[in-house]
Amino acid sequence: MRDGLELVADAYEGTEQKPRPALVALSPYGKELQALALTTPPQRRPSPMWDGCIEAGDIARIVNEDYVHVIGDLRGSGGSGGEHIGNYNAGGVSLGQDAYDFIEWVAAQPWCDGNVGMVGISYFGSMQVLAAAERPPSLKAVFVSGGHYDFYETTYHGGIMWFMPRAAREGRGGDSGWAFTDGVKSRMIEEFSPEELKAKVDERLADPDVAGWPNLVHVLNYPKNHEAWFDIVMNQFDGEWYEERNPNELAGQIDIPVWLQLDQGRGWTLDSTIEVFDRVQGPKKLTIGSYPPMQSRPFVEEHDKMFRWYDYWLKGIDNGIMDEPAVDVFVEGSREVVTAEQWPPKPVEHRPLYLRPRHTLSTEPELMGTEFAHPDGFYQAPLTVTDDVQILSWSTPVFEEPVEMIGTGAAHVFVEIDQPDTNFILRLWDYAPTGMRQLITTGYLKASHRELDEARTSEGDPRHPHTRSVPVEPGTIEEYVIRLYPFAATFMPGHRLTAELSNAEPLADEHNSLLPPDAFHLPVGRPVTHKIYRDAEHPSRLVLPFTTQ
């Protein structure tokens, strides 16, 4: 690197000694782990052999397609030198800067012809965006599958802590985790005095949700065993810590060709992927694939598209790929692929479906007042004392003709709670006549994070700043606007749409069984009674993106 530090890497190439284009993969997960792609058949969830960190791509196929596959360990991880401190930052050096130096080193090697692309999903995908934003001259294009970008949204969904980042860092629930070294350090420990840090830790432990979860109590008391996860737990609000080197914010600096791909079912990641797509300045494509949400490990999907992309941009093969539409979206239900030049791929009109008595959804609002249209409700005890998750649901009548929806949505719910805070977890399902169901999209909101960013909010597209907590006054009725992550679905004749609302997640269901065990959100640590009002004065409703052609 430009400061003299050395990073380690493995390079895989064909037997014929000649310069080739190179595909670079960079992460803190360890290059030796990625080498298992040569010996481990791809695993899908719920296989216990699925390891979420084997994400650098299909080494054998990359070599067979006549590319060099270069897999490197980031600063402060694996066999590389230096320190890794904080978010996308390593000892004061941005990971994008290191990626720039790494790519230019690769391009200068005798086995590389000077044309470089990148490969890999999730963290490897984030590194592609960070690298492209630095504009290294030899990086000619990127193909990003399953990337994570907005780091706050990756870690806190609607202000509710998600445990999956713990798995990626510590190695839990089907992940090997970071290839930790002594160089991985906590930004919080580096920046604050012991006295200041203790005060901040005590403040976090005062949150009953945190205090009721054993792992978080442990992390906060022993941070040097969990440096990266400790920093996330300590930063529950969006702001400077997350904005530093935020790939979403840097995407506007990218002017090389970018293809972004993601499957449905991981809405928070899809939201961020679409934002990056809208911001990049060069030639670009967006592919939104089908459910379910978890790709194989070792990662092998999407290589056909990737090689067509790189054959065009790195090898100069005119395969017609740039004559094809920029956006292609798989629509669940109809199982059609819709193409266009933008997202959403069709004109959309946001229309309401109102919560009505007898757990129904209707296009018509409620006319009666609260005294007649009594609220629905549920009491949720903490999961420390029960495994029973209370769920309210409302359903449409069966659809008589196909109804297509593509885009983001919102849920406006008027709720009274008897505590200063709770979670709202809303899930939309497509129920078939057989009783089988498929998750369509989700929405999350911590009640104390209900403030809206009015400048960025529009109908069916709410935005929350998540920069502070505003406790709820118990006994008051508040309107909560929950963002529903982007989706594409057609509800076929005989099917119905069902909305489920809870403040915790079921421990196992059709969707959760496809995810690693740590794909779970921090539950509420106190008992809460919820009353959901849906009368003439409190028009609780979904606002959904109906296509108009």
TrEMBL record:
Residues 452-464 have a biased composition (Basic and acidic residues). The keyword Zinc-finger does not apply. Residues 452-471 are annotated as: Disordered. Residues 307-543 form the Xaa-Pro dipeptidyl-peptidase C-terminal domain. Keywords: Hydrolase. The keyword Magnesium does not apply. It comes from the Bacteria. GO terms for molecular function: hydrolase activity. This is CocE/NonD family hydrolase. It comes from Citricoccus parietis.
